[in-house]
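Quick one: structure for this chain?
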Amino acid sequence: MLKNTFLHIPGVGERTELRLWRSGICSWEDFLRVRQVPLPPGLQDHLRYYVEKSLDHLSRGDAGYFQRHLPPREHWRLYPDFKERTAFVDIETTGGGSHALNITVIGLYNGSEYKVFIQGRNLEEFQSEVERYDLLVTYNGKCFDLPVLKNYFGQQGLGQAHLDLRYFLRRIGYFGGLKRVEESLGIRRPPSLRGVDGYFAVLLWYRHLRGDARALDALIRYNWEDVVNLQALLEIGFNRLIASLPLPLMPLPLAAKPTAALSFDPTVFEELKRELRTPIRP
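Got it. Here's what it folds into:
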């Protein structure tokens, strides 16, 4: 998709890009090959310079160039070319207001390996790990995960391209929280994790602090589901979005969901569900 993109070129907007696509100029190579371009000569020379420059940056794997020049809402176009340098990220916290909450767990999935960073153990290692990636994918991370991470680790980090799937999926008609959108797109969680949300993650952390040996494993397993499912959401959404474009693009092959090699005791979720259903007596 990146080679079909002209929006990162200064002075090129959606109308110009669409005009090029509809005239049969669907890629950078098409633009360089075709003699008759439906643009004024001065603009043609301008585009030629930036197309050649773009090919050079892409050949060097320079995702930062496109991150700086693409509108943020179009960072999804980076994914196929930088799939191996994409990190899916989700955090769990202690809950409360923005000034009171603390990070408890950070999950990071790169399409093949899940890594977890835990408060009091290895949370500080997240910063060096995430620097290996060029594209960060979250759900509602624009409003929550990234501001919390930047508040904890400092504003100098996490400058990669960022794709918030909450807003990306709205473009194809899917609204609501992560679990609701998963259900709408046919992504199913194990029975023991259905009906479990972020509030459970808060309660599990406090159970862990009080010595419940089951709680941390259950929290990590919950986070694993949140993080790994982001890849499926992105790839399904990507294929549906490109199908609406006037471009001859092949859909992405959907990555198979990995098997969770994380043992946990599901009874802790059942206990929490019962506690939350029990009315508080005056």
